[in-house]
Amino acid sequence: MADRITHCPPYSYLEILPIVGMGGIALLKAKVGGDGRDSLNGNEAKKLEIHKILLRRRYLVVIDDIWSAEALQHIRWLFPNKRNRSRIILTTRLMDVATYTAISLNIHMMRFLDDEQSWRLFQHKVFGDQDCPHELQSVGEKIVKGCGGLPLSIVAVAELLSRIPRTPKLWQQIEINDGQLGSVLSLSYNHLAPHLRKCFLYMAAFPQDYEIRASELVKLWVAEGFMIEQNKSKSIEVAAEECLENLIKQSLVLITSRKSDGKIKCCRLHSMVRDFCVRQAGQEKLLLSVMDYFPTPILRRHFLPQVLQNLHRKSVSWHDLQLRNSMHSSCTTSVICIPQRGYRPKGSVKNFTSLRVLHLLRRNGYAYWELGQVFELINLTHLASTMPNGIVPPAIAKLQNLQSLIIYGSEVHLLVEIWNMRKLRHLIAFSFHPLLLPEGATLSLDNLNTLSMATNFVCSKRMVDTIPSIRKLGICYSEENFRVGHHLDKLKHLYQLEKLKLEMHSSFVPRLNPIFPMFLKKLELSGRWISWKDMKIVGSLLLNWELYFIELN
Q: Fewer beta carbons below 10 Å: N end or C end of the chain?
């Protein structure tokens, strides 16, 4: 039934098949709409007839490519449960449908096919029970390999090849990313809510096979405003994380690794899905992946100035930003930049006066923006970059709309002006030098959710009052700087803190007191933080049902 997916609308086929030894054969077909409306709707007599047929028999029901739990809800009463080993098999791309407990008890997750399985599926779809002719085998294997083990793409390509003359010359002209596959993926895409479509298409900004950090993606979605209309009862970051989970449940995004607490750490797009994503993002003018549309520097030099006039968001190479004739870049609101080796490290954003998002992918530690230009971008809400010499100048305070500041580097110097940025939600670096509070001033970064990693952090009462909403805190200490004056006992007053990471770069074990906040959910201790005799401190945290993970490195 998988071959029907390539040319059918989102309907499911319900087939009642005979079981050996039933003492009779009954065959019945019906369509079940993905939105819960079925072709039996309004025909109660036919529904009752189906129910009576199944009532007298042991049956196997196969429901293929179902798109909603509501559709199952409408038809489940048709299937009587006489405990006679009858079975229902359901296929779907949606995890929510698969876990619909009224129907599904056992879930089998389909995985990518290996080369042998891919070839077997392809050969069956094109040639049936016959073997592939010798003259087509080489080109056929090359086509199948390009499908990357994705059954949908293999079936789509096989469907196309089965309709054309079987000659090596014609087969060599077939593009794997044919519109046939696009029509298959469009079923999943069209099923998404509008804000999920934006989130999905935004992933076209990342290069092929790039492992996307979930935390990086979530912050970008928030900065773009995709979460504005979501549930007000939860934090905007939690809403974005749920969006990523939904895209994974829709089988559009792949998980590549998880965190120690089970949450998503990294993800990526399958090459076939990414090709669809890039095309769709360009067609809907949500984002343009410049290097996909114009793969050579010559093409980009010629067309990029015209492109910049029409699209607000774009993914570009580091070199593309150096083009002097990009005079229309003032309409650009978001730039995802891909560093390249061999080019000068300093990047210009002189003409990008409307930028809200400026994100440099983390690939090396040499590229950085012309800071004098960056600090004039008063609308900027998200900045991810390296900083020359690891110093953040006082002019950073000009960016009063900045919500995320991500700095790729260690021993980053932050001056006291950082505390004037009242909208800041995330302040992240590999490590910061000790954070200083200005003398005599009363400050409060009420929106700050993340601070990591703060070196030799002094958790004084004044510091606690300055960051009352902190949820994620990373701290590291060295042997020569660890002392009682860091006031770690005050951590317990950070009432919103959920995740705490403590690193100790030393050869001795400090004496700890119970300092941990009441609602802590994750604690990570790295280095020689605690002796075995003090493990009761960690044990006492387990009495708090909120704490679900402790990691000792």
A: C
